[in-house]
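Pair request: fold both.
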Amino acid sequence: MEEGSDTDIEGRVKKYSYYYISRKLYYIPLFFVVYWAFYVFWLIVQSIARHKVEIPLHWDPPKRQKRTIDALKVSVMDQIGRFRQKFLSQEANTR
């Protein structure tokens, strides 16, 4: 009995696993891991490339909002300057 069990163990060791699956089936998880690693690498490369691209201003609402606020500020300051020049300088001249 002991000799027969030794040959069974050697037979199992020669095979790829305990369940005697073929080499192709044994390598399926390896192929999956390699494919998955390349897939994750490609996703990382895409993400890096996407964030390195400069977005036009009309696609970036915060920058567009800041640009609108800056234009409004310039307009208000220009109107205040015109008011000073028009009314306050005349008032000083009439006194």
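--- second member of the pair ---
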Amino acid sequence: FALDGHIHNISKCYPTGSSPVNITADANAWVHGAIVEIIPANTINENFDIHYVNISGISANGDYEIKLYQGGGGSETAI
């Protein structure tokens, strides 16, 4: 289904009309910071996939790794 039934509707931006989500890096290199909820559960009630992530306010001298997770608080799994 993922390949045969993949349909794209109009692109949408989340969050819109609100403050951006802030993610804080860990003080140590290559140590992940705290998990931050970007899209709360049951906020988007239709199938969706992520095409773009806007990242701003970073240092040109830094190295970054961003992990996406799914699941409720305390039971997150990396995707």
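Observation on the second member. The first strand starts at residue 69 and ends at 70.
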